[in-house]
Amino acid sequence: MANQPFKARTSEELIALQSAVATAVLAVIIVMTLYFGRDIVIPIALAILLSFVLAPLVGLLQRTRVPRAIAVVSVVVLAFALLFAIGSLLASQLTQLASELPRYQSTISEKIQLFRDTTAGRGTLERASGMLKDLSKELDKPKDAGSALGANTIVNPKAPLTPVPVEVRQPDPGALESLQALISPLLHPLATTGIIIIFVIFILLQREDLRNRLIRLAGSHDLQRTTAALDDAARRLSRLFLIQLLLNGAFGVVIGAGLWFIGVPSAILWGILAAVLRFVPYIGAAIAAAFPLALAVAVDPTWSMLLWTLGLFLIVEPIVGHVIEPMVYGHSTGLSPVAVVASATFWTALWGPIGLVLATPLTVCLVVLGRHVERLAFLDVMFGDRPALSPPEIFYQRMLAGDPTEASDKAEEFLKERSLSSYYDEVALKGLQLAQADADRGALDQERLTKIRDAAIEFANNLSDQDDRPAPKVRSTSDAEATSAVESVAEDAPNANLPIVSKEDLPSEWQSECPILCMGGRSLIDEAAAIMLAQLSSAHGLAARVEGPEALTTSNIFRLQTDGVSIVCLVYLDGTGPAHMRYAVRRLRRKLPKAAIILCCWLKDIDQAELERLREAAKADLIASNLGEAIKLAIEATGLNVDSLKTKHDELSATTAA
Fold first, then answer.
1. Beta-bridge partners for 204
2. Which fold, 498-657?
3. Per-residue pLDDT tens for 387-408?
């Protein structure tokens, strides 16, 4: 019987190992299929991406009562006619450029010579180069070359004769061979184009059927939710790719027009190239700029054309990338920077240059699928720009690592859009609940608990200058972690609009230096939560101080400094029984008979009825389930009316603003 847990554990490990091996084998098969089947897979991938671009146009025609089949065929024919026209224009521009290249050779030679003439230290470098060349010639001479000079040499009569050149000429090809030589290079591109056209038409015609098959493959048990999610994903991808195509096309038009105005030859060619290469992340615009810059050097005897061309790219690319793109479809495509680089490397290794262009759109498709299909969630974790951990998990990890500075920085980003009490309730408090869960199962030793408490002290001090007013409804943060935290908090907490109490508003018995005492109930994590409560209370004008759980012991309770204390907030996160709470409240009653005791019982998944039972069992005056509610109870305990304070505060703010 004793070996059963070991056998069960071994069996589970074996199953996990088999699953990992199966996943690895499947990944290798998929990669090999993508590589060896690229002649088929690339047209399918292009067709899928084109279908996302063309789907809104098809939908637009359908809304005007055009039959679906006619709408699909019309849009596809129009799109490929435009592509063929651009291809023909590209070919003519390339031919013209190739015919003009020999004219630019003299300009390049003159500039190279001018550069050599103006290079510092030219004489020394040239002398050193000449010396090395002479030395190389001496080393390459035969050993008897020097003695042969001036000596009577005898010509070898058996010396080899000079070979006679022979020219072999093929007969003129016939008409059939000439036609075959002309058509052969075109067969593969035409076949690929035909496959793409067929797939685009069928994908647009069978969109709903393909969606249903994807739902079946995903194996979702919630049919309605999955259908709505995939429809939303398809709409978002269509909008993203269409806008990206229009934006990059406009970028190419601006670049082409600017180069034409500057005088760079084949400006249309470089504009088209700029539009295509801008799909390549990070380096696409730089690659597109390299060609016209090199041509500007070759064409213009001076350097003015080069400087104008460089200025054109340095002005247009930042405006499009950092001003227009964020306004049109957000700050990013939803991919992490590492994922963009990794996907570009992966798809380029598989499919070459076409993979480099398709890397970002394909990876965006995978990430969107990962966000909406449960079985593919790992794709979102691997490639998406959203944090892999939830905001409470990130906060807990920062406290565990002793890094409160980074946590404070992310919190300040969050406070641009939400209130301080919302952050404490929805992020920090839930993060401490995760820590308490680890402590309950024995995963945290005393050293780690102390580190979390000390980090919480520094974190609260870093936010000591923050007030708890509702943030303006403006989406101003661009930090990924802060954005994730904001999205997890749909709106500010109900108690986020509590008034800031001034000392003059308080009754005389409440005007002491620290009228509120926040105490950790049982553990250091309770003390960390009490620290946050004290900071939030101070932000609302009620000064507070903190004591640890050791102050509640029988030997320490009577040495506790309680001068001016009117409220005691007893904080619990560990889910301990009511007995400990009752004895703690009893000791506090003896020490502070006139103070109000608020039991701050911040447990996961506890309802209001259970909270009330805990309050009655512990004999506390009040009970709160979160920090914001505790602050509200503290303000009401002073005898002040919260609503009247709000009205007074709003009127004062309006007067100050006027």
1. none
2. Rossmann fold (3.40.50)
3. 777 888 888 988 988 888 888 8
